[in-house]
Design goal:
Helix content: 55-70%
Distance between the termini: 23 Å
Number of strands: 4
Subcellular location: Cell membrane
Pfam family, one: YitT_membrane
Membrane topology: Multi-pass membrane protein
Protein name: DUF2179 domain-containing protein
Order of helices and strands: HHHHHHHHEHEEHE
Number of domains: 2
Strand content: 5-15%
Main location: membrane
């Protein structure tokens, strides 16, 4: 892998993401004795039991895992994940003691999960990880075809069950809530702050509407050919992708030309290509 400007930029974002994640853990979750998912959660559990430093424990647990992953996983992903893991271990040690002692444990759970999820999402957008269970999930997915999200959820569930050794059920439930909030923020950051929408438009004026979308919104349009089940009439169906901010403008254009048009607008997980890019969203 060549260390050009793009890869250096990715590495910097990964380090920033690891730092944000560490703040979420040490500032909000550790003071409440909550857990998070992954190897960090195991390290936190050991910290509560025997006072082993979280950052050092995370680093030690990852050593054999990375030795294995270099052999079986894409080199670029492993290198960026190694950067993420080292940065995380360092940042967890650096931010140790940066505690926010909130009186409301629910707020600590929510904010800790949100900040940790934001940091993780930034790392994942650079096609890296923070090591730990992310690497395990990728390895299992590669050779056994299990969904990565499912594997991660199972591993986190095992960690939460193990947490009952050191904590009561209330702490475990708060930890589960924090992990859920974190997962939502991870998904949000990966999707981008400016989410994409896919629109399907059935109209009697497809050419006019398509031309207006191209002219006014500078978005590409594709015609799909459909047939009405009742009328058996052939129709051009307009397909286009827009940002969330552009949905209102799209509706306005369609309604102005054909107020009887049938529109379906749905979330698009990710859109790449001309007019849309990963860098534009972050």
């Amino acid at each position: 892998m060549r260390w050009d400007k793009t890869n250096v930029k990715k590495a910097v974002y990964i380090i920033i993401g690891a730092f944000i994640y560490a703040i979420g853990i040490n500032a909000f979750l550790v003071p409440q004795r909550f857990l998070t998912g992954g190897f960090a959660g195991i390290a936190m559990l050991l910290y509560y039991l025997v006072k082993w430093p979280v950052g050092v424990t995370v680093f030690i647990m990852n050593i054999p895992l990375f030795a294995l992953s270099f052999k079986y996983i894409s080199g670029r992903f492993v290198i960026f994940s190694l950067i993420g893991m080292i940065a995380l271990s360092a940042c967890l040690s650096l931010t140790e003691g940066w505690a926010m002692h909130l009186e409301d444990p629910l707020l600590a759970s929510i904010f800790g999960g949100a900040i940790a999820g934001l940091g993780t999402g930034i790392v994942l957008r650079q096609r890296g990880s923070l090591g730990g269970t992310d690497i395990i999930s990728v390895l299992i997915n590669k050779y056994f075809s299990f969904d990565i999200g499912t594997i991660t959820a199972i591993l986190n569930g095992i960690i939460l069950v193990a947490a009952l050794i050191a904590s009561d059920i209330t702490v475990v439930l708060y930890s589960a809530a924090s992990i859920f909030v974190s997962s939502q923020f991870i998904d949000g950051v990966q999707a981008g702050l400016n989410r994409r929408k896919t629109a399907f438009i059935v109209t009697d004026h497809p050419d006019e509407i398509a031309a207006r979308i191209i002219e006014k919104m500078h978005r590409g349009v594709t015609f799909l050919h459909g047939e009405g089940a009742y009328t058996h009439q052939q129709k051009k169906i307009i397909y286009c992708d827009v940002t969330t901010m552009e949905v209102a403008r799209l509706k306005e254009i369609v309604k102005k030309i054909d107020d009887q048009a049938f529109m379906t607008i749905m979330d698009a997980r990710e859109v790449l290509g001309q007019g849309f890019s990963l860098e534009d969203s972050f």
